[in-house]
Amino acid sequence: MNDQNLPKTFCPMPGINAGMLTLEDLERITDIVRKYDVPMVKVTGAQRLYFQGLKPERLAELKNELKIPDGLPHTRSRVHYVQSCPGKTWCKFGIRSTDNMSKAIAALELDGPLPYKVKVGISACRMCCCESWMRDIGLIAEKKGWRLSFGGNAAGTPRIGDLVADGLHDDEALVLVKKTLNYYLTTAKYKTRSARFMERVGIDELKKNVLG
Ligand code: SF4
Q: What was the pLDDT predicted at 151?
């Protein structure tokens, strides 16, 4: 079978945090590829890892092993994905570490289901390698702390996120991300992306509800 004839199926590898892969992750991935004869592994633009092109019956077996339910590969009670740059630990330009922040945001417990997908981009300096301004939640590190934006989007009608606050320490940034998402999920209509929500509500109203 050549690539043209492969099924358009895919399955995400759970537990990969912002594209960081340990030796154990790599060994597990290799085991899966061998066991299920996976035609292609793709590192996505969102820094996730997808097994692609499996026949439907093999896909079902793999999903079963990975405990991935049928339907959407994500839950609305958590952010869709967190994308982060290597940060201060691995990049000479990095001002802050991104590893703990990306894990903490991915694990955030919210007050309920989100209206729609929420993508997070974390960049450890103003070069913004993770395009934070174009994500629903954007964090960019500066010397004085994190800069938090909300309502960015890179899709059909692109939008640069609104600046919610800056100069935030790690704990402050995490608290404000949670408050912002909780405000969004209690205020926005179902299936309204943050960009469209912010066009309607405006940054001043958001700030009034999440700051202070
Ligand atoms: S955003 Fe800055 S710190 Fe992060 S990878 Fe890019 S240059 Fe390095």
A: 98
